[in-house]
């Protein structure tokens, strides 16, 4: 793996369906009904069923792992800015992740990320994580 400052990393897109949410709920133990019930999700003010925040973060970690051949993650952070709304159909939505290597210093590469989803009420891509970045050991 060679990461150089300024390098643009290949965009990764991962599908998310209601079935994905059920599998993640089983693996994580997070059965909050906002992740499977439209009735509950809308009752609490959400536009519909949303993906688990940590599921979204796991997809970002997957992209980073693919980009870096599984390099050790030293720092990983973001703010949840918008939910990933997952419609109740066979298509679901997707999360698209892109990254730019900001720096490579002292054995660490810092990657700035952009994470968007089409899972919004408008159907337009919407940023779902604010200020996401990761540092990996190189």
Automatic annotation (TrEMBL):
Q: State the source organism's domain of life.
A: Bacteria
Q: Which Gene Ontology cellular component terms are annotated?
A: fatty acid synthase complex
- What is a single molecular function from GO for this protein? fatty acid synthase activity
Please list the residue ranges annotated as the MaoC-like domain.
7-99
A biological-process GO annotation: fatty acid biosynthetic process
Q: Could you tell me which InterPro entries the record lists for this protein?
A: Fatty_acid_synthase, HotDog_dom_sf, MaoC-like_dom
UniProt cross-references to Pfam families, sorted A to Z: MaoC_dehydratas
* SUPFAM superfamilies xref list: Thioesterase/thiol ester dehydrase-isomerase
The entry assigns this protein to a family as follows: Belongs to the enoyl-CoA hydratase/isomerase family.
- The protein depicted here goes by the name Acyl dehydratase
Species for this entry: Nocardioides albus
